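Ticket 4471: requesting a sanity check on a complex prediction with magnesium ion. Repro inputs:
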Amino acid sequence: MVLASAYNSADDNAWCPGCGNFGVLQALKLALAGLNLEPWQVIMVSGIGQAAKIPHYLKVNCFNGLHGRTMPAAFGAKMANHKMTVIAAGGDGDAYAEGGNHFVHAMRRNPDITYLVHDNQIYGLTKGQASPTTGLGTLTGTTPFGSVDIPESPLAVAVAMDCSFVARGFAGDIEHLSKIIAAAVKHRGFSLVDILQPCVTFNKVNTYQWYKERVYNLDEDAAYDPKDRNKAFTKALEWGDRIPTGIIYKRERPVFEDSVFKPADKSLSRQPFTPPDSLELMRKYA
Amino acid sequence: MTKDITVGISGAAGMGMQSISFTLAKSFLRAGYNVFVWQDVMSRIRGGNNTSMIRISTSPVNSLKEDFDVLVALDLLAIKRNALKVKAGGFLIYDGEKQRAEEPKAGWISVPFEKLAAEAGGDKIMMNSVATGAVLSLLGAEVVKECEGVITELFSKKGETVISGNLRALKSGIAAVTPGVSGKFMLAPTLKINSKNKALINGSEALGLGAVSAGLKFYSGYPMSPATSIMEYVAAKAREYGIVLEQAEDEIAAINMAIGAGYGGVRAMTCTSGGGFALMIEGVSLAGMTETPVVIGISQRPGPATGFPTRTEQGDLNMVLFAGHGDFARVVLAPATAADGPLIMSRAFNLAEKYQVPVFVLSDQYYNDSSFSVDLAEVRVEPVNRGGVLAEFPGSYNYKRYDLSAGRVSPRLIPGAKDQVVYADSDEHTEEGHITESAELRVQMVDKRAGKIAEIVPDMEQPFYFGSENPETVLVSWGSSFGAVKEAADLLNASGKPAGILHFTNIWPLPEIKFKFNESAVKSFICAENNYSGQFADLLEKNTKLRFSGRILRYDGHPLTAEYIVGGLEG
Ligand SMILES: Cc1ncc(C[n+]2csc(CCOP(=O)(O)OP(=O)(O)O)c2C)c(N)n1
Ligand code: SF4
Ligand SMILES: [Mg+2]
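Returned structure tokens:
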């Protein structure tokens, strides 16, 4: 049995006290331990931002790449090690702005990767500018008169892309979040978990209190069927007085790996290194 | 008898110039000749005017001529654009019944392609075989048997009627050229021995093949001419050799995927052209910072921006040398001929893993799209060196990805090793791979990454030298210009002007250059490059003892030729 503490990292944590990221970190440790995965069996890939520092605060294999480029790097790492668990993480800017194109195409590709997006509706690391999910009218460093761009609904985008697992979590409800993350990791295929993550320093609108007043647990609603895409689309768009958390949409789709690997195949990185002879390949042109 | 002949096949895109040139080239290759084919194409799928240029020679040939001995014009526009490029005494083969607008001139031979095709095979599409036959007739028709074999192979999937129709079309093409003219360019006979040991392969195929045989396991790319054909080669082989290939959403994704796979422990590559590479540049510095091996193929075409998309140039050297913010080590290699492809690729993957750096393989449209005759006995590769990559590591959670005690290149562990984790980080980092704010570590890590260059230098190969021991003129060149520059040096020597060619395929870092000729005889070092400014000459002047008294440069979208270079020396 693996304990959550097995994932503790000695690295110095740079997040602000009270930040929602701590809730995500704890929920992730609980989920991984619950899945009985050893730290060496997991690869985390992240971008740049406050959220993207999370792999350093866990003991896991980590590729902390570029801002916005989490999805492609995670895809490459997964293809080399398809037998390992690959989890990607980053902020809303990382995922939906700089990485927006990659996000869309990752869902088309459908590799067995879980993407945790710490959605604080703000750019934290760069000290408080608008993000793609910042609410209309919000005052930020770059929107001093209020944000005018309509916020993106990442969950609706995901359902539209027929993403194979779409969920929302809340960093203020660690227990539920850890269950969602565990379900996402277990799900075979690309899983998006958009996590409401209060930024106590730069987002004075979407606070713990603001979210607490609105979120409800969809997973407790036995009548809700996450396989119904039309209902899922409606749920994904629900945002206001009530905000659903839990599994919004779920769908079995062939995963990318199945198109290239056979069930018995080892990870490419652990296969014997036996390339073909160049002369043999050249002879075909004689 | 002729020892060296150039044939052009010209027509609108989609008319089959490439299949005629392939059939001719392969036939002459099998008959023991050396052949070289370049595609001069417009950026369109139908219409316009494209020309395949085939050079057939009794001696090795890796370059073109400026003019044609024989031109096959498949439509009127082909005549209008190219008739003046037919040498005096040469021939223009055209369909006098279909292309009537021009007044025929001396040396114009009318061959009714469509009519003969319809008669021979009942399908005017077989006019390609008629045209092939007409060329064979002029060249002595000594290779008819080989040509019949090539046609039979080419149409093997289309069935007996198509094969026999094309063979009849070939014969009627041969017969269509009047006896007085046929054999006008009779090629000198060659020894047919060993013709089985020659391959006709283009640069893209040679690079793709080189990568596959070097153990490539992951390829990501976004289509862009002239690099796409490398990706298509790998795609065709991916299943057979267990390679994951993915068409990325853009070049940014492509390079980040390849780096992710490199971190993951496999040999990974991405290829593009200059414009796509511009998008990849942050990824180059990511590879530098994280010390992740990756091979980046750049197939140059004339820029800036979309540029002259289907033509050739060596104009992206500066970009490749300086791409990426911050200081870190990189390696740049550039193959000279297709025979070089496997060697350059095997070196690229070895150097990338040995030093944990990005390695660039710089080619261009001329290299990628030209078919070279490759003597199989000359194909070499470097033995695999994976730089001691580790699958396991002793102890428990004590591995340090950027261990400084191990020198500039720290042992690289593949993630998934029991009881160990591997942190790679694009931020400045500690030995463990965690983000750091330490100024002291910052200096140590920069010294580690950038200082690798000093360790790579002794691994870089000397330039080749061919020519006179006491050259008055030394032509200096790099990459795909080899064939033209070598031929220019040969021409100079043949005309009593001692010359040599100093040719680089190991571009960066530069080794300390040792001359294999009598330096005191040299009156001038002249660089010859397919770009506007002489980018490589600048690099050499900055970093070596070489100084140039002249630069022969070409940037009209066409490759260098020996004639162009010799003309430049005289002018
Ligand atoms: C190419 C590039 N552009 C811009 C930046 C600067 N930058 C770093 S993090 C960031 C946005 C952070 O916001 P988010 O992704 O939401 O993460 P958070 O800090 O809120 O967790 C930006 C713009 C960068 N590092 N790289
Ligand atoms: S800036 Fe915001 S998101 Fe970043 S650590 Fe502080 S509270 Fe958390
Ligand atoms: Mg954010």
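Notes from triage: The mean pLDDT of chain A is 98. Leaving this open until the requester confirms.
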